[in-house]
Amino acid sequence: MLLDNGRQARLQQLPAVERLFNDERVRKAAGTLHPRLIKRIIRDYLHEVRSEIINGRDAQFSFEELELRLLVARKPTLTRAINGLGVVLHTGLGRAPLPKVAQEALIDVSEHFSALEISLLDGRRGSRYQHVEPLLCELTGAEAALVVNNNCAATLLILSTIAKGREVIVSRGQLIEIGGSFRIPDVMLQSGCRMVEVGTTNRTHLRDYENAITSETGALLRVHTSNYRIIGFTKEVPLEELVALGRKYSIPVIDDLGSGALLDLSRYGLPKEPVVSESIAAGADVVCFSGDKLIGAGQAGIIVGKRELISKMKKHPLTRALRCDKLTYAVLERTLELFLDEERVVREHPLFQILLKSPSEMQKQARQLLNAVQKRLAGRARFEIKPTRAEVGGGSLATESLESVAVAVKPVDISVDELARRMRLFRPPVFGRVVQDEYLLDFRTIRADEIAIVAEALIQALA
């Protein structure tokens, strides 16, 4: 690429890596960072500036920006964060906090050796499925179960085992795309099966499935549209009817629930989400769902269903590539144990504490934050408690929102975007949402023991 004289001159003015590495300001900002990391951060930043200049953008080197990057790098990037966004299962913030019993199990198996694949009865090599399979069968009514590293992997394994080289019939209205642009048709392609779309986007009938069945049909697939809804003039085939059709032609029925719930949320005033045990009771041969959404454990893809099919999956070569480690099993086992006692899981699990938090409790906590900062920040910002709406997130209850309460902060001397940036750079980082000229801290997701931290972050950002 030929560059004009102006861009060439700006490129030549960029400082050398070694000169910056030896600069006193850089060394001070870097603190105890390893020299190799310091040089990498310098090189990466210079590369960004150089690319911007070459592409004709108005970029220039900034010592302040480099110092900021070094200061941020001095602390681990994967750190605890405070969720003031009002999205309960926020993928970027690691979804829900783990229950206390799961935290304790995590420490226990990470500090010591663990009986991951050994039988306590006879001391012989065992199966890692032993830790969760009985619990999953008890909670769902399934004959067998296994766990892989996420629900996309679960779908891939199921299709690869049951229908590789064969046709799988699915409704056009269920060809979902999940986070990161991963699409059901792409997963099906990777599994080796051939997708057969039936119906239309908004209406699919039982006859559409039946008319598509051939000698090459390997499975009927239902996919729960967990991250969107089609409303209005719509038609979807109930699972019971799809199961009856599958049995008529001896074709297995797969139910991909996405989020998956182990208890009926509607009993607690929340919108209805498909319950795994209901799919098993309806006769689905295989059901898959996530472990880190409405179950609130670590990331996992859970598969439950008929023993014969699950046994084939356990022997499939992909299972080794997709299997979970001891930490996942430790967290999942203790979390599933909570669900055996519904009153206990609602009382102790942080996910349900957040989902069922009352408006009066959120109002009280918002007032506590105001009391902590208003006098200290008089003249620096205006504060107001406002009603707002929170989201479940994580592809769960897509069209539903939850009543919530937020503290709205309108800074006087800095922009609202700069306030958001300063809050993110606090340790631990605090995440709020910018709405027009206000910075909102949503108390659906801010917990009681975090109020003092949020107050200190605001004081440091605005004082």
From TrEMBL:
Transmembrane segments: none annotated. Its main location: cytoplasm. It is an enzyme of class 2 (transferase). It comes from the Bacteria. GO terms for cellular component: cytoplasm. GO terms for molecular function: L-seryl-tRNA(Sec) selenium transferase activity. One of its GO terms (biological process) is selenocysteine incorporation. Keywords: Cytoplasm, Protein biosynthesis, Pyridoxal phosphate, Selenium, Transferase. Signal peptide: none annotated. InterPro entries: PyrdxlP-dep_Trfase, PyrdxlP-dep_Trfase_major, SelA-like, SelA_trans. This is L-seryl-tRNA(Sec) selenium transferase. It comes from candidate division WOR-3 bacterium.
